[in-house]
Amino acid sequence: MNKGNLKCAYCQREYLDSNKNNPFRKREREVATVDHIIATSKGGKKYDEKNMCVSCEVCNNAKKDLGLEVFLKKKSQGNSLC
Ligand SMILES: [Zn+2]
Asked: Does residue 31 fall inside a structural domain?
């Protein structure tokens, strides 16, 4: 992953930090995580790049194992996540 130039696929927040263990850890909304578009608990493939995207930790936590469409719908209904 390109450090310092990561962008959340869901809220479009940019410049996420991929180093989760940084002692000067940023707020969770600025931390990059790998999200599985189809959650592995729902049968999504864990190591398939097509099923992976960069997500900030806030979106990732909010999405959990919701389907992508369900999550985006929830998000568009004003349940502000980030
Ligand atoms: Zn986000």
From this structure: yes
Helices (H), 1-82: 57-63, 68-76
The number of domains in the chain is 1
Residue 10 belongs to domain with CATH number: 1.10.30
Q: Does the pLDDT of residue 82 top 90, yes or no?
A: no
Domain extent for 67: 1-77
Kindly state the DSSP code that residue 31 receives in the 8-state scheme: B
13-68 pLDDT, tens digit per residue, is 998 988 777 776 667 788 999 999 999 999 999 999 999 999 999 999 999 999 99
Give, for 52, the enclosing helix (H) or strand (E). strand 52-56
Residues with a beta carbon under 5 angstroms from ion ligand 1: 8, 10-11, 56, 59, 82
Tell me whether residue 82 is in a domain. Answer: no
Look up the pTM and report it: 0.79
